[in-house]
């Protein structure tokens, strides 16, 4: 009690495992430097229940709840005279819920899906993705250009090459769902350049199916915000069996 402490409330994917691993590495490095008590010590909560009990000791509701979460609570739980304790319990429910199911979009480019679809679907199943939307379509030039990274959109020659390929035949568009879907799909696809993907890991999908930076096999939503936009672009009629928050609510 004679020295100050730093208390942090952290949020992240697989937060308990990730923080535990980080602290273990930090502790090992600290122990190599000194065997005394002069260096800081660190403790962490190990379960959502303990996290909740400790959080309400040190933080107020304004500290714990982001503005977006407050808006969600007001919209869906408009209880007049609601006490801070009741609103804090909604955070406990959030901690217990675990990772939220998210949607992302995978577009299999012309010439790839017609020969590789069975294997691709098998691999998606092995990676715990659930297919909640599927359609094959012919992309227009505007839709094809919207899929390109911002840096490529500044290069007219690159835009022309990519759009010519993307509009050369039918593409297959899948909406996929799983926890941490956007990052997981990006990790499976690998870099846009198939040669770089091959050098990093031959098992990456662009290493297996791509032949050039233009004909690299796949497009995947590069961020959660882009995933929401892509779902609205390719599946405006809705998804067949997606669980979790509707896309319209995610846009907010």
TrEMBL record:
Source superkingdom: Eukaryota
Keyword Transmembrane helix: no
TM helices/strands, residue ranges: none
Statement: the UniProt record of this protein carries the keyword Aminoacyl-tRNA synthetase: no
GO molecular function, one term: kinase activity
Coiled-coil parts of chain: none
Chain ranges of the Nucleoside diphosphate kinase-like domain: 101-241
Key words, A-Z: Kinase, Transferase
Protein family (similarity comment): Belongs to the NDK family.
PANTHER family per record: NME/NM23 FAMILY MEMBER 8, NME_NM23 FAMILY MEMBER 8
Name of this chain's protein: NDK7 kinase
Species the sequence originates in: Molothrus ater
């Amino acid at each position: 009690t004679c020295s100050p402490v730093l208390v942090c409330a952290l949020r992240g994917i697989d937060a308990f495992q990730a923080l535990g691993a980080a602290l273990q590495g930090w502790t090992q490095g600290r122990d190599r430097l000194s065997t005394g008590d002069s260096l800081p010590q660190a403790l962490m909560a190990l379960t959502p229940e303990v996290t909740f009990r400790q959080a309400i000791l040190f933080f107020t509701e304004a500290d714990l709840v982001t503005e977006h979460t407050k808006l969600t609570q007001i919209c869906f739980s408009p209880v007049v005279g609601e006490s801070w304790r009741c609103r804090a319990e909604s955070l406990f429910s959030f901690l217990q819920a675990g990772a939220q199911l998210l949607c992302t979009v995978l577009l299999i480019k012309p010439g790839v899906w017609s020969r590789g679809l069975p294997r691709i679907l098998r691999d998606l199943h092995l990676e715990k993705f659930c297919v909640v939307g599927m359609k094959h379509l012919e992309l227009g030039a505007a839709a094809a250009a919207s899929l390109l990274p911002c840096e490529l959109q500044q290069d007219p020659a690159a835009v022309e090459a990519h759009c010519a390929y993307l509009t050369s035949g039918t593409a297959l568009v899948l909406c996929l769902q799983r926890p941490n879907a956007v990052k997981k799909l990006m990790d499976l696809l690998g870099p846009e350049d198939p040669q770089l993907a091959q050098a990093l890991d031959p098992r990456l999908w662009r290493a297996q199916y791509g032949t050039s930076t233009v004909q690299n096999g796949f497009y995947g939503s590069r961020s959660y915000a882009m995933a929401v936009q892509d779902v609205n672009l390719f599946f405006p009629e809705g998804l067949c069996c997606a669980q979790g928050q509707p896309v319209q609510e995610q846009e907010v």
